Amino acid sequence: MATNPDDRTVFPTAPISGRLQIIGWATILFILAVLIWLSRAVRMPATNSTVFFAFIAGILLIAWLMNPRKLILTRDRLIIDRFLLPISIPRDSMSEARVQPEAMTPSLRICGNGGFFAWAGWFYKKEFGLYRAYVTDSKKTVTFRTGKRLYVVSPADPTAFIECLQRSAY
After folding, report:
1. Which of 44, 91, 127, 138 is 20 to 30 A from 155 via CA?
2. Domain total for the chain?
3. Domain that includes residue 152, residue range
4. Residues 130-153: pLDDT tens digits?
5. How far apart, in Å, are the Cα atoms of 151 and each of 6, 63, 74, 116?
């Protein structure tokens, strides 16, 4: 956690958990194995396999660029910082923030990244309903609401993150 002079508190996201690393690398290795097998079994022309490989690499790159990097708290916003398309949430709309380890377990991915080094996107859990997740470690999760929408994030220090959120009325 770092406090900047412009009244921004920056919380790094939790390091990518071992479980997510295994899922990500196993998926990449599986995709590479299928690519190699397809190029030999189907005798795919080199240009087709190159295009297919570039397509898969593009998907992986976009997933990486959309992963949460840090959480930035300002006086009026929570920013979920990503390389592409950061998420900005007004703090005055936030309520019910709490540390909830394993909040995502078990959940159903509706739309989004389900294991390429983060869980990010729309998920469903019976207790929560539909929710948004930006999680790199499922054991360090924090949940909060904005109106009827639930968010799940994973700061490196969930307790400090909640304390900082609660210092100002939300």
Report:
1. 127
2. 1
3. 1-170
4. 999 999 999 999 999 998 899 999
5. 26, 19, 18, 19
